Amino acid sequence: MKKEAWFGLSIMAVVVITVFILMPSPSQMTTGHLGLLMLAMIVVAIMLGFPTAFTLMGMGTMFTWFAYHSVNPELAVKQTLDLMVQRAYAVMNNDVLVAVPLFVFMGYLVQRANLIEKLFTSLHLVTSRIPGSLAVATIVTCAIFATATGIIGAVVTLMGLLAFPAMLKAGYGIKLSAGAITAGGTLGILIPPSVLLILYGATAGVSVVQLYAGAFFPGIMLATLYIGYVIVLAKLKPDVAPPLSEEERRVDLPTFAEIISRVRSKNVMAGLIGAIKGKRNAEVPMRTLFNQLVIALLPILAVGLLMGSIYMSLTAPESKVPEGVVPMGMAFELPEEEIKAEDFGGLQEPEVAREEEPLPSETVSESQEEPAEGEPVPPGGRKPAPTGYWIALGISALGLVVFYTFFTFTRLELFKMLLSSFFPLAILILGVLGTIILGLATPGEAAAMGSFGGLVLAAAYGQINFRMVKESVFLTAKTSAMVCWLFIGSSMFAAAFALLGGQELINEWVKSLDMTPIQFMILAQIIIFLLGWPLEWTEIIVIFMPIFIPLLAHFQIDPLFFGLLVALNLQTAFLSPPVAMAAFYLKGVAPPHVTLNQIFLGMMPFMAIQVIAIVILYVFPAIGLWLPGLVYR
């Protein structure tokens, strides 16, 4: 028998032995202890390979019948079936889950647009002078592609076919290569749009919009830590990640670029403008010069549009309701005690302090107020832009000057490579995330636009056809059905667990320990980390989060912050043996001489980095809470 099988059996044995040791005698056993027994049995059943969703449903139904049968045997079957139907209907009526199939469909479309090879090649050349450039390009490519698709297996498999042979050929170590691919490929379960965050939001009752905003910077932080580790390791051990040769870093220039570089200047702006004005450009068509100049000016256009839109937003005049006009739907005033903040997708309207109404003689409309002497009146009624905006504008202008100073024709070719591979994906991702984070669209609406964007992207690259769309729809239906059945099973299981009193038993036990919030947080994260060894993240979210979440209020822990820590922690579920699915995805496409143990060892340093990231986020919670607080305050 393989070592992995012995490891899994030993973990199951530990679970079973622990249950028998901690359980009281049958005469002293209560229904709450039955709930704990059900929890242990579900873990063992999943580790034995039973389907998670239907195991949850079966266990939940059986133990619910036990609970009702102990009270009224005649009505046990009817009450059990009624409860199961109600839980299933409640899950299928959850609007948050609508975003799951749409995001999955977007992912399959992007995956089939065949962008990953172009993306990896362009990022490889852009980062060629950085130590460990191939591994750095691999992590960045995995992060971008995993964010766009959210399908971990597809990203790890494709990068295993594309980047793994390239790194091994360049002399990179097997462990570093495997670790970079598996760790980078799992970033999609943290960086939005993430299905994990949708499931956690639906389970914990937390706004998915705020979860997306909160997970953005922790995801970037974790990817940056990965890249920093690779660069430091490449510096300390060049034999593990040798630098690329000049031949591998060389970028072939088109004919017009070679001519202008030789005759005019290697700088793009000086060379193109000089060729347009000069007489020595007979070998270069004028149309080519203008086309290249337009491409070279795109960074200025992008910065101008961005800063202009920010200026218009910051200086927009405040909307004023003329006196005497009543807003629609408010034809009468409600008593003060009946006015409540309304919930919009988990967000609440901020309470506005009421000011005492001035006397009629003192009432002056704002339009009649005259500005103070010497105070400038903004043109068009716009507010003056804050000082921070002008500082940002100056920094942007300085950055453009530096960029164009060193903008050679070689860098122009790299920019065009990124323009055809990186920027379309980046625009799609930022468009989906931006509309969600800024509150312009719900996750479901943004996911629908993302799916449409995936269709447009596939069509733009000539990859769309009936067969591709059919396969994407079929895989989306398959994945969505799995997620929905899993959520129904977890809802039934949670109902049975609560009915038996297992949740109350755990709550009383945890409260009796008299722990501080820090101690509870550390204990919870350690338990989740250990659960990531035998279980996948989906099982941890749907089975164990309903146990932790009711305890958060007692310890005064923000469910949003707890969810961000859990999302970071659950990265280990894909990198920790024996379940470590990322390792098996990579092993399936790796060369025969690469063993599973080498892949496991390559993932260990990145698991340590994940633990460091959790500590950093806990010590500096503003990394995850600053953006939601800024946007939704």
Describe what you observe in this structure:
With 633 residues, the protein is mainly α. The protein is built from 28 helices and 2 strands. The chain has a two-stranded antiparallel sheet with strand order 1-2. β1 and β2 (347-348) form a beta hairpin. α5 (99-111) runs parallel beside α19 (443-460). The two termini are 57 Å apart. Residues 326-375 have low confidence and may be disordered.
Question: How are the SSEs ordered, and which strands pair?
Answer:
Blueprint: H1 3-22, H2 31-47, H3 52-69, H4 76-92, H5 99-111, H6 116-126, H7 133-149, H8 152-169, H9 174-185, H10 195-204, H11 208-236, H12 246-249, H13 255-263, H14 268-277, H15 286-296, H16 298-314, E1 343-344, E2 347-348, H17 387-405, H18 409-437, H19 443-460, H20 466-500, H21 502-512, H22 517-531, H23 537-552, H24 559-569, H25 572-575, H26 581-589, H27 596-619, H28 622-632
Antiparallel strand pairs: 1-2
Count, helices:
28
What global shape is seen? Answer: globular
Question: What is the end-to-end distance?
Answer: 57 Å
Strand order, sheet with most strands? 1-2
Proportion of helical residues: 55-70%
Tell me the structural class: mainly alpha
**Average residue pLDDT:** 79
- Give the beta-strand count: 2
CA-atom Rg in angstroms:
29 Å
Indicate the low-confidence ranges by residue numbers: 326-375
Largest β sheet strand count, sense and barrel closure: 2 strands, antiparallel
Q: What is the percentage of strand-forming residues?
A: under 5%
User: SSE order, as H and E?
Assistant: HHHHHHHHHHHHHHHHEEHHHHHHHHHHHH
